[in-house]
Structures are given as C-alpha cells and as structure tokens.
Amino acid sequence: MYHLAWEISTLSEVIGLRLAMQNTGALVGESDHGVSKSLYCQDPDGLEFELMWAVPSELLTPEDEKITTRAIDWNRTVERFGADTPGRGTYARVG
C-alpha cells in the first residue's frame, strides 16, 4: 500500500492542518491535482498519508479535469474557491 487519503471538508481546514503538519515535521509534500488539493504527510512510523480537499464538481473547469501534479498556490486556490466552500464529498452534518 502506498498511502491512505482522508478528505477534508474545507480549504480553511486543510490550511490549518498544513500548519499543524509543518509544526510537527510531518508534512512531506503538497500538490495541486486539478480535481483535488493535497497535503502529503508521514506518521512517526514513516507511513504516508494524504489530507485532501476535492473541488466541487460545479466549480471544475476542463483544465482542472486533466489530472496533473503541480505546485499549489494556497492563496490563489482560496481566492478562487473560497476558504469555507464544502468539498465535493462533503455531506451535511446532522446534530
């Protein structure tokens, strides 16, 4: 197995987790995949995991749908999508 991935609800949560992972030395990479924005981290045993936000389908452009791996500009990403926009797989919480 290469890694596990967890979908995070909003970009603001991803950015908060990014800071936490940087502060603990767990952040090992970050990528813009067009359809998703991802952080790559390692746990203390060296196992890699991904924290990602999936772009909502209605906000995808044809260029986004060409899955790639490129550097991510967090400021531009937040400007484009909004810090609190729910990701594609995010569902309303009950309670």
Task: Record keyword descriptors for this entry.
2 helices, globular, four-stranded mixed beta sheet, alpha+beta, 2,3-Dihydroxybiphenyl 1,2-Dioxygenase, domain 1, 95 residues
In words, what does this structure look like?
The chain has helices at residues 11-24, 74-81; strands spanning 4-7, 27-32, 36-42, 48-54. The protein has two helices and four strands; from the N terminus they run βαβββα. It has one domain (4-81): 2,3-Dihydroxybiphenyl 1,2-Dioxygenase, domain 1. The radius of gyration is 13 Å and the shape is globular. Helix content is 23%, strand content 25%. It has a four-stranded mixed beta sheet with strand order 1-4-3-2, covered by helices on one side. It is of the alpha+beta class.
